[in-house]
Amino acid sequence: MKKNSFKGAVALLTVLFISSILMVGGIALVLTTVDLGKNISNRVNYSVSNQNLQICREEILLRLKKTPSLTGSFQLFFSNINCNVVISNEPPGEAIKLVDIESNYLEFYKKTSYRIDTSAKPFIVNII
After folding, report:
1. What percent of the chain has pLDDT over 70?
2. Whole-angstrom Cα distance, residue 94 to residue 70?
3. Which secondary structure element, helix H or strand E, spans residue 3, and what is its range?
4. CATH code at position 45
5. Using CA atoms, how far apart are residues 91 and 94, in angstroms rounded to an integer?
6. Host domain of residue 87
7. How far is CA 14 from CA 3, 19, 25, 28, 58, in A?
8. What does the alpha-carbon distance between residue 61 and residue 99 come to, in Å, rounded to a whole number?
9. Which is it for the CA torsion 54, 73, 90, 105, positive or negative?
10. 65-74: long-range contacts, CB 8 A cutoff, minimum separation 24
11. What's the number of domains the chain is made of?
12. pLDDT for 50-102, tens place per residue?
């Protein structure tokens, strides 16, 4: 009779061992999936942040085309876009503009500086 009780103990230990391995594998799979989902979300938000910065840059170029002497700091608001812009003249004269653009989208913050020659047609835009 003692042989039968050992068979049950071995079977129980085997089931517990396999269950624990499967449980650890399942938890690792869930954590990997959550991490992958967060990475994909961050990549999309980063891409949207870059697009917002480009939209703000294009808006500034349009405003400089209409008013080449434009300087100062202001904010641009669109549907879901918020940009802070600072435009200053590079000495000497007013033809070269230094433009700093900051864009916020969710927790993503982008800042880029440009040197724009408004005397050239079309404008010459360089990233600083």
Report:
1. 95
2. 9
3. helix 2-66
4. 3.30.1300
5. 7
6. 2-127
7. 17, 8, 17, 21, 66
8. 10
9. negative
10. 65/123, 68/94, 68/95, 68/118, 69/94, 70/97, 71/97
11. 1
12. 888 898 999 999 999 999 888 999 998 887 778 999 999 988 878 899 999 99
